[in-house]
Amino acid sequence: xxxxxxxxxxxxxxxxxxxxxxxxxxxxxxxxxxxxxxxxxxxxxxxxxxxxxxxxxxxxxxxxxxxxxxxxxxxxxxxxxxxxxxxxxxxxxxxxxxxxxxxxxxxxxxxxxxxxxxxxxxxxxxxxxxxxxxxxxxxxxxxxxxxxxxxxxxxxxxxxxxxxxxxxxxxxxxxxxxxxxxxxxxxxxxxxxxxxxxxxxxxxxxxxxxxxxxxxxxxxxxxxxxxxxxxxxxxxxxxxxxxxxxxxxxxxxxxxxxxxxxxxxxxxxxxxxxxxxxxxxxxxxxxxxxxxxxxxxxxxxxxxxxxxxxxxxxxxxxxxxxxxxxxxxxxxxxxxxxxxxxxxxxxxxxxxxxxxxxxxxxxxxxxxxxxxxxxxxxxxxxxxxxxxxxxxxxxxxxxxxxxxxxxxxxxxxxxxxxxxxxxxxxxxxxxxxxxxxxxxxxxxxxxxxxxxxxxxxxxxxxxxxxxxxxxxxxxxxxxxxxxxxxxxxxxxxxxxxxxxxxxxxxxxxxxxxxxxxxxxxxxxxxxxxxxxxxxxxxxxxxxxxxxxxxxxxxxxxxxxxx
Length: 562
What we know:
By secondary structure, this protein is an alpha/beta fold. It contains 21 helices and 14 strands. The protein folds into three domains: about 5-80, Arginyl tRNA synthetase N-terminal domain (Gyrase A, domain 2, 2-Layer Sandwich), CATH 3.30.1360; about 115-360, HUPs (Rossmann fold, 3-Layer(aba) Sandwich), CATH 3.40.50.620; about 380-555, Orthogonal Bundle (Isoleucyl-tRNA Synthetase, Domain 1), CATH 1.10.730.10. Helix 5 links the parallel strand 5 (about 110) and strand 6. Helix 6 packs across helix 8. The two termini are about 35 Å apart.
C-alpha cells in the first residue's frame, strides 16, 4: 500500500542525513499543497538558512509522485500528482475491494470491555465501555493484530454479600421467573438502605466471605443470579452485534490470590496494615497503597485484576492489554499496573498494560446510581431509538420495504455513532433525538449518503470496471478530495489504535460523507459523457465501500435503502 510520507522521506533522505519521516506533515489548508517539510531541522547540519535549503532541495527532487514543489519561508510544500495518486488508489481498491485499508500489523492485543455487573441492569452507564471497546476491537483486528475481546464480568465482591442478605430477608416476596434483573435491583436498592445499620452491613460482608469459602447456599444463589444476568445481557449484545472471544468473571481469578500474596511477600512488597495486606506504592509515585487482601481474608477487586494479568500473559502472550473503563478507575489501574511490576512477569506484559478511560454519560438530573435505582436500561434506550427511527424513516419513505430492519440499523447506528463521535474522555449528556437527526454530523446522515450512492449504482446497466476509467476526468478538486480521503482510510485506522480513540474514525466518515454530498451536488454522476460517467461511478462506489466498512468497524450496520 502506498505510503506517501515514506516516498517523500526516501526522496529527502537521498539529499540529507537527518531522519525526515516524522517531520513530514499533511497540509490541512487547501491550495497550499498536500505535504510539508520544515527545512529548519537541516539548518544546523548544512550550516545554511532554512530558506536557502528549501530552495536548493526544491530543484533537486524529482518523482512521478510529485506534481510540483514550492519553497515557502523555509518549508518545502509538496503537491502530489493527482492522476498518479488516483490511479494508485483505484488499483489498490481493485485488488482488495471489501478489504481496502486492511492492514497486516503484527502482535497480540487484549481488549477488555463491557464488563457489566452480575445481578444489575445493563444500563446506560455500561454503554460507553461496550461501544468504545467493541470499536477498538474491530479496528485492531482489521489492521491485522491478533485481537482478543474479553468480557470481564463483575461477578464478585461485597455487593453479592449484600444481595444474598437481601434475598435471605425478602426473596419469597419476588418472583424471579419474569423480569428477574429488575427484581434483583429492587432487592439491592432495598438492602443498601438497610446497610446504614452496621449490623446488617457486617452480615453482608460475612456473606461474601462465605461465598469465597464455597458455602453451598451462597454459591447456589450466586450461580442463579449469574445465569439470570447473562441471559439478559446476551439479548443486548445480540442487538448490538457484539460477540466476545472470552467471557470470564472475577470469580475465575480468586484461586490465584495465594500465589499473588506469596510472590509479593517473596519480593518484600507485602505490608500488613490494620489487619489487611497491602503494597505501599509511594516509591512508584502513588500515595494510596494497593490493598491485596482485606482484614477478613477475602480478596479485593485489585487482587482479581492482578490474577487476570497473570492469566492473560500465560494464555495469550499479549503485546498490549487495554482496559476500557471510566476515568473514575484511573487510580485503581495505576495501582494495579504498579503492583504488576512486582509479580515476576516478563516486563513486556507490564509495559503493554494500558487504561483506556472515558467520560461518563449523565442524565439531565445528574449522575446515575444502581444503589439508588436511578438508571436507564440500555435495552430500553435501543428499543426507543429503533421506534423513533422507524417513525422518521416511515415519514420520509412510507412505502419502504423491510422497515423494521432499516429502523433497527438506523436507530442502533444513531446510538453507537452518537457515543463514538466525540473524544472518549468527554462527559456526555445523552440525547437520542439529536443523534437521530438526518442532517448534521450524525449516523443517519452518513447512512443516507451511503444509500444515495447505492441508489445511483442500482441504475447502472452493468458494473463499471477499472479498465473503463479515464483518469483525466477526475482532475477536479472535489474528485481529488475524495481520492485523498480514501487514501487516508488506512492512516486513519492506524491513528485510531495509536490513540485508542474511535472518534477519529467517526469524524473521518462524516468528512467523507460531506465531501461526497458536495460532489453529488456539483457534478452529474451519470453524465452523458460515458468516460466521465464511468470514472465518477467508480469513484463513488469506493466511497460507498469505505463508508460501509468504516461504519461496520464502529459497530454500525448500513441499510441499502432508506
